[in-house]
Specification:
- By secondary structure, the chain is of the alpha/beta class.
- The protein is built from 20 helices and 8 strands.
- Among the domains are: 237 residues, Spore Coat Polysaccharide Biosynthesis Protein SpsA, Chain A (Alpha-Beta Complex), CATH 3.90.550; 68 residues, no CATH class.
- The strands form 2 sheets. A 5-stranded mixed beta sheet has the order 4-7-6-8-5, sandwiched between helices. A 3-stranded parallel beta sheet has the order 1-2-3.
Length: 453
């Protein structure tokens, strides 16, 4: 049981181990230099039950180093890794031991998985189901290597945390200190024997709460540092995808399978690489699209913010949008006058596009237009913001804090001219409420309330 800073859920996990109906086992806890109450909890359980053996590393070895250390220190015929935040049904060990005893060719036994929320509530549906069918795992009994390559990415925990023959697992290279090393370990184990499924959802995996450590693992650098802390100070020679491919090829090459099976396994690995490559391309495309959109948003907001260079970028923007969407009003705004001063059509188009973005920078720019000195920009912003008093009025009220009452009256007048009396009344009420609720609202709230009376 490799652990690190596990005080929150460690006791619950140990209780599920000690409640097993199969009692001939030893729990070896390898503490990876935790800085919380993990050591105190482990020593208390070790003093209470002689089957628990607690050891502590002098320094943090990383997840891979701690997983390998606990494997090296284990002494039983069968071996199982167990995460500190997961749970087991009382029948888990008994069922897995019976499955391995009944089949000498089996190297690993596993059960179905039931997912839990971070607070331990069982989920009705497994979010990692490959086919979406509840009986998805029932078809994993004696799973072949090609199918394992297709599903192992999402189902890897049920195999990594299964019960395995220690002598066979010792023939593998163990847990590597690189991203997705658990996939390679499972593949090496499958190349040496069969996997057997025991019926029933006896393994409960907990979804991780969004803690800083969990969030850090969503990035490659954080995930690599989780496996090996030294990766924080040096950069890997190979990307995770290339490293995974190299290690998988090495696992197949060093296995003792026949020539025909070796070819089949290489083909299956090619399909696995193609699937991961497609997913990588999709994620890259989404990231590139987001970067382009962010850059365009920043440039367009900068052009709209500057009164001197607004006209030409807005005309190009309206022209492209009009051609793309075949809208004549945008084409008229792009080529129509006036040319030497602020163009109401162009500014109305720019305000509408800013409003549709719904980001903080666009909202701030619209409010700047509404409160600015340019009459045409005020009207353009009022035409867009008028129907949305509940969203924009509180922000405007903050900007008008300690300002003369005439500023609030001017905003309401622009809203009235652009959207009518109903929208103006909504803005007057919303500004009055927001200004009265703010600290040191000054004369604005009083003036609005008096005007309403």
């Amino acid at each position: 049981m490799p652990v690190y800073n596990a005080e929150a859920l460690l006791a619950e996990a140990l209780d599920s181990l000690l409640a097993q109906t199969f009692t001939d086992f030893e729990v070896l806890i390898s503490d990876n230099a935790s800085t919380d109450r993990t050591a105190e909890i482990c020593r208390a359980y070790a003093a209470r039950d002689p089957r628990i053996r607690y050891e502590r590393n002098a320094e943090n070895l990383g997840a891979a180093g701690n997983f390998n250390r606990v494997f090296e220190r284990a002494r039983g015929e069968y071996f199982k890794w167990f995460a500190h935040d997961d749970l087991l049904a009382p029948e888990y060990l008994a069922a897995c031991v019976a499955a391995l005893d009944a089949d000498e060719q089996a190297v690993l036994a596993f059960s179905d998985r039931r997912m839990m929320s971070p607070d331990g509530v069982p989920l009705k549906r497994d979010p990692y189901l490959v086919t979406g069918r509840p009986d998805d795992e029932q078809r994993y009994d004696d799973i072949g290597f090609p199918k394992l390559m297709r599903v192992c990415g999402s189902r890897c925990p049920i195999f990594v945390f299964g019960l395995m023959r220690r002598a066979v697992a010792a023939q593998t290279r163990g847990m590597g200190a690189y991203i997705a090393a658990d996939l390679v370990f499972v593949a090496e184990l499958r190349l040496r024997g069969r996997f057997r499924r025991v019926p029933g959802a006896l393994y409960f995996q907990r979804l991780h709460a969004p803690t800083p450590d969990v969030i850090a693992r969503t990035r490659r650098a954080g995930d690599a540092a989780w496996f090996d802390p030294s990766r924080r100070r040096r950069r890997a020679a190979l990307t995770p995808e290339v490293k995974l491919l190299v290690e998988m090829v090495r696992a197949i090459r060093e296995s003792e399978v026949s020539g025909l099976d070796r070819v089949r396994f290489y083909v299956a690995l090619g399909g696995h690489v193609a699937t991961r490559g497609h997913r990588w391309c999709v994620l890259r495309a989404k990231r590139l699209r987001w970067q382009i959109w962010s850059m365009w948003s920043a440039v367009s907001r900068g052009c709209l913010r500057s009164a001197r260079v607004t006209s030409l970028p807005l005309r190009c923007w309206a022209l492209l949008s009009g051609v793309r969407r075949a809208q004549r009003d945008r084409l008229r705004a792009a080529v129509g006058g006036p040319w030497g001063r602020a163009n109401p059509r162009l500014l109305a188009f720019g305000a509408e596009r800013l409003h549709r973005r719904r980001d903080r920078g666009s909202m701030r720019l619209l409010i700047d237009w509404l409160l600015g000195p340019c009459r045409v920009r005020q009207q353009a912003a009022a035409g867009v913001l008028g129907p949305h008093a509940d969203r924009y009025a509180p922000v405007v009220a903050v900007r008008l804090r300690n300002q003369p009452p005439e500023r609030a009256d001017a905003v309401v007048e622009n809203i009235h001219a652009a959207c009518g009396a109903g929208a103006a009344a909504d803005w007057r009420n919303a500004l009055a409420v927001a200004s009265a609720a703010a600290d040191d609202a000054g004369p604005v709230a009083r003036a609005l309330c008096e005007a309403e009376d």
